[in-house]
Amino acid sequence: MTSNGSETSPSTGSGASRESPRPDRNKFRHKGPIILRGRELQRSTSDQRFLEPEVVAGRAPGDFTRTDPWRVLRIQSEFVDGFDTLARLGPAISVFGSARIQESSAEYAMAREVGQELGKAGYTVITGGGPGVMEAANRGAHDVQASSVGLGIELPHEQGMNPYIDLGINFRYFFVRKTMFAKYSQGFIVLPGGFGTMDELFESLTLVQTGKMTRFPVVLMGGKFWAPLVDWIKDSLVREGMISPEDLDLLYVTDSPSEAVTVMREAHERRNEELRAKARRAGSDFDPEEFLEGDAP
Ligand SMILES: C/C(=C\CNc1ncnc2c1ncn2[C@@H]1O[C@H](COP(=O)(O)O)[C@@H](O)[C@H]1O)CO
After folding, report:
1. Sign of the alpha-carbon torsion through 151, 153, 157, 158
2. Where are the residues of the annotated region Disordered (predicted)?
3. Nearest CA to ligand 1 atom 6
4. Which CATH class is domain 90-240+247-261?
5. Ligand 1: which residue has its CA nearest to atom 29?
6. Tens digits of residue pLDDT in 83-110
């Protein structure tokens, strides 16, 4: 320690003639369990090395056959870690939305209220663990002492997980992370956002439309923001026969956090009733709530 309380590097000591600049502790990125700072930040991400090995490492096409089969083991371990950690969450709702909105914005306030309402209704709040809407929703859960989870992603310029998360997993691969949102949530609430949010919204709609997930509510929050997209879906996708008119029912638009949570709760209860009835018909006393009961943090 120096007299002003700051640390000195052991290699330079005080008064050393060639002092290297102090590393910025806020600039870092995770690579699985590994943390990268300084020049290590220039390393590519796992998704980049997997999807574009020829760009990242200049590998010849034949090299894929030797490297990708081994990569499967790492992908597999990421699924195992995710399943192992999240299976005990209990009922949870994922909240998606822009990584870029500021704390002073109306969207931040809305997302925070959504997190609070979900928490009060007994749900764990799952987000992408980043800033903006994600931080606000996690913060809302934290406000009401509800369980708050972040499923982060290794990005070239990671900002770190927001501070309102009790349980965080940092994934290397986007597709593994997306599986976790779908598998461990009972519904999705989507606030305004950009490409990342659209990707998450349309993937969930596709999973429901194709019957991969049933009785899975998707609520869009912020009517003004979503109106042009919903109009385009009606005027182009339905009119051109690209989707069925009933597919519009997959979307519920509201500005009210408590209404969004009511939609989640009602769909969840309907689904539980159906599962109980199915179990009774099969002579079983299976209870979906017991199945979901977790020891969430
Ligand atoms: C780009 C910026 C921060 C990146 N940090 C993110 N951390 C975690 N999850 C993220 C991040 N960025 C996007 N996501 C996921 O996509 C959705 C938001 O994307 P959008 O393009 O901002 O709509 C979000 O729900 C996350 O799951 C800071 O500028």
Report:
1. positive
2. 1-34, 274-297
3. 130
4. alpha beta
5. 100
6. 999 998 999 999 999 999 999 999 999 9
